[in-house]
Amino acid sequence: MDVLTLLGQLLNSTLVFSTALIFSALGGIFSEKSGVINIGLEGLMIFGAFAAGVGTYYAQEAGMGNWSPWIGIIAAIIVGVLGSLIHAVAAITFKADQTISGIVINFLAAGLTVYIVKLLFEGSAETPLIHAFQKKAIPLLRDIPVIGEGFFNAYPTTYLALILVALSYFVLFKTPFGLRLRSVGEYPGAADTLGVNVTRMRYIGVLISGALAGIGGATITLTTTSTFAHNTISGQGYIAIAAMIFGKWNPVGALGAAMFFGFSQAIRNYVQLFEWSKSIPQEFIFMIPYVLTIIVLVSAVGRSAAPSALGTSYDPGKR
Amino acid sequence: MSASTPVVELKQITKRFPGIVANDSISLTLHKGEIHALLGENGAGKSTLMNILFGLYQPDEGSIEIGGKPVKIDNPNKAIKLGIGMVHQHFKLVQPFTVTENIILGMEPKKGVNIDYKSASAQVAKLSEQYGLRVNPDDKIQDISVGMQQRVEIMKTLFRGADILIFDEPTAVLTPQEIEELMAIMRRLVAEGKSIILITHKLKEIMEISDRVTIIRRGKVIDTVDTDKTNPNELAEKMVGRSVSFEIDKTEPNIGPAILQLNDVKMTSKDGVALLNGLNLEVKAGEIVGIAGVDGNGQTELIEAITGLRKIDSGSIKAGGKEIANLSARKIAESGVGHIPEDRHKHGLVLDFSVSENLVLKTYYQAPYSKGSFLNRNAIDEHAQELVGKYDVRTPGIETKVRSMSGGNQQKAIIAREIEMNPELLIAAQPTRGLDVGAIESVHRQLIEQRDMGKAVLLVSFELQEIMNVSDRIAVIFEGRIVGEVLPQNTNDQELGLMMAGCWDQGGQPVE
Amino acid sequence: MNKWRKIFLSDNIIVPLVAILLGLLVGAAVMLIGGYNPIDAYRFLIKRVVGTPYDFGETIRQITPLIFTGLSVAFAFRSGLFNIGADGQVLIGMTASTAVALSWSGLPSWLLVPLSVIAGGLAGGLWASIAGYLKAKRGINEVITTIMLNWTALYFSNYVIRHFYLLKGQNRSEDIGASATMTFLGSTFSNARVHWGTVIALLAAVFFFVYLWKTKQGYEMRAVGLNSKAAEYAGMNVGTNVVKAMFISGVFAGLAGTFEVIGVFHYQSVFAASPGYGFDGIAVALLGMNHPFGVVLSAILYGVLTYGSAGMSFGAGVPPELIKIVIGSIIFFIAAQGIVRFVLKPFYLKRKKEKVM
């Protein structure tokens, strides 16, 4: 295998591993930019992965063929939004500690999804196998060396993720909605006195994060596992949080960070092709992304760019 | 002032919070082109009333009429639509946003789905010119001065077409010159047909700029008077409910040897900005030295340097002749430096600790409050019992969490703790901020008492009046240096103001 | 008498009790929707726990690590830190104990057991201190570092077990020798895996209480936890306290791992994914209002529910995952106390009226 092909493939599988993280990290950004910590991304991804498994299965049963995974995506959005609604109600309306309320989502998702799967599929602990997304090459573009194989022969979800990165950036930094969302996360008191409805903006932020993390979870079911079980999502939500922080709460930064995590996952498979790597225990290769994250955080200059009001509930009485 | 319909009429507004009646049947009228001052102590109910007018609170009883029509203002949006704008005491500005972004937030001009930043900036620039506000639309809030931030606040209301402007304690953080400038802006605003409600407790400003004054005390209107038919003493008496003297009784200082000596102290921020820039200062036993200056000129850093909360880069700090620069906060406290901190909630107290726990915050590790590794609860409680009595800290009990106490009593607890440690040098930073007149008097008395006992007292305050009244000597700080020293009896606001603005540099030479 | 009355009527007791009740009701509703009989299910759950001495003993076994991890998370909380990394600290503690037990298997029991316990606690503590140190020195949020350290711990433990102590052909370590184990009262509970770790867990709760509320160091730690700025102003060393708090928190978690090896399984598995001890600990700590004795009570509840869920599944056919929904709901109601107060409102009003009369 020549180097260019290898590089192309490496880039390709980097994107496969990153896609789910990109969605979920974007979701995290919308929630946290509005001032609500979302440690429930893991649970929201579980909800999404579950809904995708179930939704796609029933769509296939109903004879929707190749459209079925898209039904799965829509189901994931709906269930993700419903899941994040719990977080929103607890954290925004009832002013619960945002971290704790996020953890609640993780618990409920882990319990509820498997419970429902067992109800629906006669006690089976996972959803039936589905026909998942297939990679789609984009004509012409895919013939570009390295980049072509890397970016333009991917799952539809990957294209969607890249589009959403651009869209999120645009929405957050160019539109009135984005300005208001960010103002609510920086200084809700200021936004409130200008007539921006803090509660509503935060609800929207959290619900968008539910939708996006839902798609993130769905991506795993629909491109990697083809079924949903209790371990389909195991920690990706937490990595997405890391990617969000790493990317300084910026969609483009999060894309970079997600690709970094995806890359370090992809490279595991490739490193093992080389003779010299045999001497390194695989566990150490697995550790790389996590240790690197810590090192990057340690060496990063200056404090991170977290929204100032992150984690604080807004109480108009205390101004 | 004409006899036409008032622009705002508040009728018998009552607002209750758990435990108190914040506004008790308050009525107030504002005429077109009028500057109407609302005078009252901290906690008298001024802010509550204005928050009701601005739609942030709902009154329990009473009604509001704008331009003669009864209205219900249940959110700020409604208030804005009715032409009411509020310039908040604590600026409601998003720090990382630009001036323009802060101004347009909530009613952004659009081009397609985008924000039309170009036309927004142009509008801001135009308004800025019309009212002489001099702000740069593209600066970030975090990079501009306090005075300019306030002008952005004013501009926010004008951008929304406000005709009725509420200024909430607008001069608290400004220099005398900036205050003059603000007064000019306010005059210009009423000349252009706006009406202003000015919330303040500063009598001088009221006398200078307002047309009428409404005085409220403990949630009730005491009186509304024409400014030209009253005088400061009458206003003060109405505000406090008894006659108050502005002069503080104090004898000539009995000055001893130098206790605190700072020599060429330098401190830089992480970004390389000079915070303290070769600062020299001396405080002697038996005197109160007041530090006057505009917020952000190194006051906080000066105190942090002396108390060991932040390291200095070079120079020397001596307390009682002993070098204390860059020692730990604990070592410095033990060597006889007491510190009443600027922000009592952030630094002075652990709000969720009980009174007794807070009273040993600096001494818990010493005998008798600790024996070996263990705390001695009995000793801690006895200590608390004693101090609560001696310093008149009003609390239901020593087990009460300080969070539930009033600001004045919280401050008393801090002062009790610091004075009981019997320091040679007492640093008091903004010690009366947010307190009512009674509490302010008692704090001042205690500072003077310490000075009369031969202690050195360093007072840092943004309230020029406080500095003038309490200090024996005034040192002016500007950009991290003491730019001049004056005696209170030989100076005035104008001179101090110029020094505080850096227009006049004595080079840190003490006056003799 | 009056004092007790006051304690029982205080919000710290009533809110969790109501939250538990509401959580069980949510569970019942979910079961009804799924077509199960909730009363039967809860009956089988209880029956499973108290049915036989063996099951009772196994429930105690289930509760023990929950006490440790609950204490771990609660202790960090009290010092103003969110230790999401108890999971990794458990694994590291486990690994250290396994390593000691297998490496020095020749030592006499009276020496080997304490050594293994100390190694586990110490390793967990040091592992947690990494996050504490990074927080103290570089201001890095401990939530993110502990999450990263969880994964690192997982792979590191697997490396140690697979490369040094692997039982041939299996995905676990060799068995530790009998001299390294510390079961007790096994016969009373028909060979349930009961061990001394339970007693130590209870002692740890007492230590937690005494340390935090009766000692100088505990006073400092609480001050740092409630207001680190004020603690700094008062001359306390915030950084040292942060590291110390994480260390102690990590020791608790490490011991959870230790006793799972030397008390329960007598070997260590190679884990494919995080075993989840730490996340259970978060739930236990929240449920126990971050108070050591509350943690013990909530660990008991949590342990009973989880162990009993198997009975519920066996007897009433309800998937055991239901219990996660119940626990999630309970924490939800505790976190969003507004909801509980809303439910309680009529009672509060009544009480106020009584007072007026």
TrEMBL record, chain A:
GO CC annotation terms, alphabetical: plasma membrane
Pfam family, one: BPD_transp_2
Transcription regulation is among the record's keywords: no
Subcellular location: Cell membrane
Record's bilayer topology term: Multi-pass membrane protein
Record key words, sorted: Cell membrane, Membrane, Sugar transport, Transmembrane, Transmembrane helix, Transport
Keyword presence, Iron: no
GO MF annotations, alphabetized: transmembrane transporter activity
Bilayer-spanning residue ranges: 6-29, 36-58, 70-91, 103-121, 154-173, 203-225, 237-263, 284-306
Protein name: Simple sugar transport system permease protein
Species of the source: Fontibacillus solani
From TrEMBL, chain B:
GO cellular component terms, A-Z: plasma membrane
Domain (ABC transporter): residue spans on this chain: 8-243, 260-504
Domain of life assignment: Bacteria
InterPro entries with a match to the protein in the record: AAA+_ATPase, ABC_carbohydrate_import_ATPase, ABC_transporter-like_ATP-bd, ABC_transporter-like_CS, P-loop_NTPase
Record family assignment: Belongs to the ABC transporter superfamily.
PANTHER family linked to this entry: CARBOHYDRATE TRANSPORT ATP-BINDING PROTEIN MG119-RELATED, GUANOSINE IMPORT ATP-BINDING PROTEIN NUPO
UniProt-recorded name of the protein: Nucleoside ABC transporter ATP-binding protein
Species of the source: Fontibacillus panacisegetis
From TrEMBL, chain C:
Spans traversing the lipid bilayer: 12-39, 59-77, 84-104, 110-131, 143-161, 194-213, 245-265, 271-288, 295-316, 322-344
Main location: membrane
Cellular component per GO, a single term: plasma membrane
Compartment(s) where it occurs, according to its Swiss-Prot or TrEMBL record: Cell membrane
Molecular function, one GO term: transmembrane transporter activity
Keywords: Cell membrane, Membrane, Sugar transport, Transmembrane, Transmembrane helix, Transport
Taxonomic superkingdom: Bacteria
Membrane topology: Multi-pass membrane protein
PANTHER family: ABC TRANSPORTER, PERMEASE PROTEIN, GUANOSINE ABC TRANSPORTER PERMEASE PROTEIN NUPP
UniProt name for this protein: Simple sugar transport system permease protein
